Amino acid sequence: MEMKRRKGSSIYVRQWFSAVSIFAPLLLQCCFSLDYKEALSKSLLYFEAQRSGRLPYNQRVSWRHHSGLTDGLQQGVDLVGGYYDAGDNVKFGLPMAFTVTLLSWAVLEYGKEIAAAGESRHALEAIKWGTDFFVKAHTRPHVLWVQVGDGGTDHYCWQRPEDMATSRRAYKIDEDRPGSDVAAETAAAMAAASIVFRTTNTHYASLLLAHAQQLFEFGDKFRGRYDESVEAAKGYYPSLSGYKDELLWGALWLYKATDNDYYLNYVIENAKSFGGITWGMTEFSWDVKHAGIQVLLAKLATKGKHKGEHSEILKEYRTKAEYYMCANLNMNNSSSSNVRRTPGGLLYVRRWNNLQYVSSAAFLMTVYSDHLRSTNDILSCERGSVGPDELFAFAKSQVDYILGMNPMGTSYLVGFGPKYPQRVHHRAASIVSYKHEKSFIGCMQGYFTYFGRRDPNPNVVVGAVVGGPDMDDQFEDRRGNYMQSEACTYNTASLVGPFARLYYLQQEHDISTSDLPLISTGR
């Protein structure tokens, strides 16, 4: 993340970008040879592999079975359901809520495209599996259960979720132990989902909105970082950026869900003190929401209702949104203000699970390119101006890299293409399915028998996006290499929108090669 302000420039992008420049040769291949519909379908299937609780009759991932059926029992509350965040068996509320917010946003932006691919039902089911859990977890207006399971004991064991013998202790936030970040993120998820369900399930949409409003009020009134109240979360999902970005994020989604000016005024009045217009971002993640806020408000700034009112603050939000876009395009003047690239052209933020940042960047750039196109506008960077097609082309290059157009020739979307990770760091996938072997597999037995095996996982966790390659585009397909081989729900959730958009464009124009201009990957 950066704090530097972006200055404008009038130099046109074509003075800087060339389709035949130093762009990685791999991206000059036939750009639309990839099956984006398949990628979309498999990405939504992945969420069924991550389900906790009693699985429904129409469960498509057949190697999974019921799990966590007594979650919350020790505390006298029903916390059955929800998602496991990654390759372990803990349910972490903060990343789960962010995942649901991303899925809902994807449906709101690209619902038509998702429907054209025949995936609307699966997208809504993925969202509802999360929101059903949040309804359960929000037991009182000022109480939210934010974690089930303990990372320490869970990571000590290598067990299928169907066999869990580890602690299933549940953790909550309340007035005495606040957690503004997780409360506001859960409010954002439920508010965004309420918009999604408004036309198909009005009662459920109203229920979600009521919970979202209560949770936001709770998070705002009783402020504090959740990982200071729930020590068990600190080693896994610490709220390093604090809670102010989530409060802005939650308020913004509530404004979109209610059209109540109270929430918009909250975002405007706290824009500076909460970092909304003072932080120039180079990442968008489960911990840091500012870039997403800035993109949503940049879109809002062009609507007639807001062109006069709050226009100056909204312009500053747009400036920061453009800083983020320019950082990913390598178009800010200072190299420290840009996101690094691998030799193969992949955005590189940090070593551990780098693809989470790539997928979220691809989503925001896709959304913003569509916004620029719809308003007949361009992106202004310090090193030049960028049109919507150029911005979209770069977003596409990141998606295509993930799908296998990279130096390793490996798809990092598991189950897609001829070559993909076979030894994903995933307990359920790496151990023989409960459907085939119902005998109990103990805590250490899983390590001794399955973890260290060189054989591929017996179950393919289709649609998972793993952590991805290193700074040199290298990837080691090894179960113990969790920084690269573990997948997380938010990695995949960010790509649902871009996959749908690319599929629809592919169908709409019936093209096999891209006419989109390519952008240099100079670091």
Automatic annotation (TrEMBL):
<keyword id="KW-0624">Polysaccharide degradation</keyword>
<keyword id="KW-0136">Cellulose degradation</keyword>
<feature type="active site">
    <location>
        <position position="425"/>
    </location>
</feature>
<feature type="domain" description="Glycoside hydrolase family 9">
    <location>
        <begin position="36"/>
        <end position="497"/>
    </location>
</feature>
<keyword id="KW-0326">Glycosidase</keyword>
<dbReference type="InterPro" id="IPR012341">
    <property type="entry name" value="6hp_glycosidase-like_sf"/>
</dbReference>
<dbReference type="GO" id="GO:0030245">
    <property type="term" value="P:cellulose catabolic process"/>
</dbReference>
<dbReference type="InterPro" id="IPR001701">
    <property type="entry name" value="Glyco_hydro_9"/>
</dbReference>
<dbReference type="InterPro" id="IPR008928">
    <property type="entry name" value="6-hairpin_glycosidase_sf"/>
</dbReference>
<protein>
    <recommendedName>
        <fullName>Endoglucanase</fullName>
        <ecNumber>3.2.1.4</ecNumber>
    </recommendedName>
</protein>
<dbReference type="GO" id="GO:0008810">
    <property type="term" value="F:cellulase activity"/>
</dbReference>
<dbReference type="InterPro" id="IPR018221">
    <property type="entry name" value="Glyco_hydro_9_His_AS"/>
</dbReference>
<keyword id="KW-0378">Hydrolase</keyword>
<dbReference type="Pfam" id="PF00759">
    <property type="entry name" value="Glyco_hydro_9"/>
</dbReference>
<keyword id="KW-0119">Carbohydrate metabolism</keyword>
<comment type="similarity">
    <text>Belongs to the glycosyl hydrolase 9 (cellulase E) family.</text>
</comment>
